[in-house]
Amino acid sequence: MCLSLKDHHIMCAGFHKKLRCQKGHSGPTYESLQEVFDRKSFRPSVNLSNPTITNISFTLYAVLGVNEKTQILTTFLWLRLYWFHEFLIWNPEECDGVTKISLPVRDLWTPDIIVYEFVDDDVSQACPYVYVNHTGHIRYDRMLRLVSACNLQIFSFPFDIQNCTFTFGSYMHTIKDVRVSPALSFEEMSGNSKRYLEASGEWELVVILGESDILQFGIDEWDIITFWVVIKRRPILYVVNLLIPSSFLMLIDILSFYLPPHSVDRASFKMTLILGYTVFLLIMNDLLPSTANGTPIIGIYFSVCLALMVISLLETVVITNVLHHNSMKYREVPRWVRILVLGYIARLICYKHPDDSPSEPATKPDDTGAWVIHPSAPVSTQHTTSTGSGSSVLAVPELRQICHDLRAMRSHLTALQKGEELLDQWCHVGYILDFLLFRIYLLLITFYAVIIICMWCIWVYQ
């Protein structure tokens, strides 16, 4: 049977009186309470034009999980609701001094307060009772496992600070029926939550802020309270497991630049480092958050470090090819390479070229020229005179063979000298390129290290 609004006003006007009590019984009688239970489908207000005011407060007890990929925050709240029930009023003096009783929540009207960001079923344990004061004020405490949507920003991971919103309001009742307001100040709720969240693992509560607002949809309006829960991550786990091992590997790679560029062991050493760094990233991949909104700066840092390792290996291969391939074929250093590398880049990186003093082999060909004995008439005559006419015919071919051998030795020494000069030039080109990449390597690593340290300092002092 449906009741009209007029019938409800008449019924409530006749019912609006204090609960009855009997002598020898503590609290209101069961019959008077049963009359209230029978009307649990109606909002407990004598005048339905007056909205029921619901006061809300909560304590953030734990942060159960943060899923960056699905943008979901899972928390555990102690929720407390207060509202006024106009039909649950009694006189404590008539009821043996009882000022507060507990009643089953299923037998009373309760405000339909929800969290608008809720995205999953509530699997938390419900409290079956409420406390009712003799003045008609009801307190309902319950535990709430809140799975809510949150716009998570992971760019500054693991030094990130997240700001998630909890919007409390009525699901069906508009502002004309149910009004909501905070039961405690936001500072008190923030202080209570900090006391319980101190030992909550990875996350630390910064502050809880909030404000009351009105949600308008079409012609209807709903009264809401928006809480901003600001939490920050404790980064020590990721610093120990990610940043410090990566820094050690990068330090070893930097020290590998002090190996001779033309050494084959340097290339194999860098390949071993790249392999180890890749395995390290694969093992630690589960610790890095993944989302389509962006990449954390620590992921960019690891990618840049890996890229620098690969570039340093390629540079070692190029320098090895320059020093071994070009110098062994006695190729001249191109003019543009001498101008660009030996000129501009050498001055840019403050590379000091050793003074090219005249080398000793350069004078030997001139000296060997004095050793060449050209056959002439006086020499032949002198040799013929001393040895006799029988040996003069055999002496001239021997001297010619000696001159031929000396010329071959001279050309060989000249070729060796030229090869040493080319090798020296290509060595300088390789060293300058090696120094240039080493400076760029240090600059980039220092730049990223300063950024991460600054982010850590901002996290500490925020």
Characteristics:
single chain; 462 residues; alpha+beta; Acetylcholine Binding Protein, Chain: A; six-stranded mixed beta sheet; four-stranded antiparallel beta sheet
Query: What is the spatial order of strands in the main beta sheet?
Result: 3-5-6-2-1-8
CATH superfamily of the largest domain: Neurotransmitter-gated ion-channel ligand-binding domain
CATH topology of the largest domain: Acetylcholine Binding Protein, Chain: A
Total strand count, please? 10
- Give the terminus-to-terminus CA distance: 61 Å
Helix content estimate: 40-55%
Order of helix and strand elements from N to C terminus: HHEEEEEEEEHEEHHHHHHH
Shape: rod-shaped
For the largest beta-sheet, the strand count, sense and barrel status come to: 6 strands, mixed
Q: Mind telling me the CATH class of the largest domain?
A: Mainly Beta
| Percent of residues in beta strands | 15-25%
- Determine the mean pLDDT: 78
- Which architecture of the largest domain per CATH? Distorted Sandwich
Indicate the low-confidence ranges by residue numbers.
1-15, 355-394
Radius of gyration: 45 Å
- Number of helical segments with 4 or more residues: 10
Secondary-structure class: alpha+beta
Domains, number: 2
Transmembrane segments: 236-259, 271-288, 300-324, 440-461
GO molecular function, one term: transmembrane signaling receptor activity
Domain Neurotransmitter-gated ion-channel ligand-binding: 33-235
Function: Forms serotonin (5-hydroxytryptamine/5-HT3)-activated cation-selective channel complexes, which when activated cause fast, depolarizing responses in neurons.
